[in-house]
Amino acid sequence: MGVRDLWRLLEPSGRRADCESVRGKRVAVDASIWLVQFIKATRDEDGDVAARAHVAGFFRRIARLLRHGARPVFVFDGATPALKRRTTATRRRARERSAAKVRVAAEKVLLNELKRRALVAAANGVKESLNL
Questions:
Q1: Cα(118)–Cα(71) distance, rounded to whole angstroms?
Q2: SS3 assignment, position 73
Q3: Residue 132 pLDDT > 70, yes or no?
């Protein structure tokens, strides 16, 4: 979910920094964001989440920070805030409603296809009986 307009709020004091500028400094890492990034971005040939993507991703990024002399400090989310819980619940309900609509539509398509096939079979049967 993130913090709405965070970058706009930080813009006046924010500045880009080279990796070299972190030498000897502690760097806070949002571990949850890293996990989501690795899971969403790392896929296998079939498009599924790659096995141990989070481990490989963490290792590469930690190695890079250490190579530049940074001392990473990992921060994990605490309890989910009430607003985020409500937003997540609303999104889940919307997904469930959409999935239900898809199921209903799929059932209608299947039923129509079965009816069409039954009509074709019946028409073929009538045609054959008339040709006899």
A1: 70
A2: strand
A3: no
